[in-house]
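Please review this one:
***
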Amino acid sequence: MSRASVRGRLKLGKWDLKVLLEVLVFGEEYKPFQVAKRMVLTKYGLLGTSKDRVFTAFLYNIWRLQGLIDKIICQVLGINVDKLHPWLRALLRLYTYQKLWAHKEHPDMTEWIEKYAPKVLREKASQGELVLWERYKGRLRRRKPPIDAVEEKFLVSRFIYEKLVAFIGRRETENLLSFLRDWVPPIPLRVNVLKASVEEVLEELKSLGVRAWRSQRCPVTVFAERGFDIKRLKALQEGKVIVQDEPSAIASIILNPKPGETVVDLCAAPGGKTTHLAELMAGKGVIYAFDIYPDRMERLKEVVRRHGVDTVVEPIMADGRQAPKLLGEEVADKVLVDPPCSSTGTIAKNPDVRWRINQEDLQKITQQQEQLLEAGIRLARPGGLILYTVCSLFREEGEDIVKRVLLKHPEVELVKLDKPYTQSPVLPGTMRAWPHKHQVTGFYYALLRKKA
């Protein structure tokens, strides 16, 4: 049986196409996509192989271009991609990327997809999907659909682009998006100082041949160059480090919980900030950790155990907005409100974020965020602190919410933040970490104090 060859050395057959499409299908259901990819490739024994490297490059580019690709599919086929069978949708995304972006570098991949696609569809879909596949293939050969120039240049939706222009202006937006288009962020690791020192972690990374360095802003953050198997890091398995962005670690340091205090974490899973708060409390006091998702809560419990802070953290499976009813009001010294958000600050490491947010979703998210912040205010005792954070680039999820809440709640006041990042351009006293200025995930912070 003849098989396609990538760059003349990698042999690919039907089984390989099925695996690649399975990653795309599973990646729609399971987030983040990197984990979905790793799970499927591990299942088929491909993780770390030469095929893994080629597949990862294809998958990452498909996810980066997904919004453009989906528009093209809709234009060519006249059908919304969401209405397509998952396996056909995955196939059309792969084929569109190959034909319009990768064909010059990998011409043999086009032949490989066209040869084995019908066989995979017969197994995974129906005759109707085969008909749509043949129709799409023929139409795409005949014409290249128009592509939004802004979306193709910056690899984000027009919606994100226009939101940012309205917030920080066109020049700053294009500087930010140009940086995010090309930036490959290092792996950020936060050291659990109850179990290890920064020096110890750096030494282990060095012994593995990994280039690593300290953060200049966060005393417990280490950066490691990408390209190594993080599972080889014993410190990770032993709870001495956790993968966590520098701005996330900074959040817990800003809130600064003390040993013996009562802390509420309203959206705690999967546990990165919760464990850091517990470490700062030296294992003394209590953290009520709320979350509504069973799988994420199980992950939190496992992370808490591994980090050795399970005596401090009390997981509560409930919506954080119900916390004042469950715990009572004015019971907490410190409250962390880190609600679900658009995740637009994480675009560099989560390329699917570039396309998925829209106005309807944003309105739903901001309503929930504001309600969670108000719950946090009710929980804080007089003199207590409430830290509101989101990994979003949108003012709608940050400054606009805080402004409304301050007007509605005269019992709270802003505590000025301006380090280690920069003050917000529209609400001084609150702070933003910008990817293009600070080389980190985009993040927003507002620290509130309930007046005594």
In short: The chain has three domains: 4-147, 187-243, 246-450. Residues 17 and 113 are 7 Å apart (CA to CA). The two ends are 78 Å apart (CA to CA).
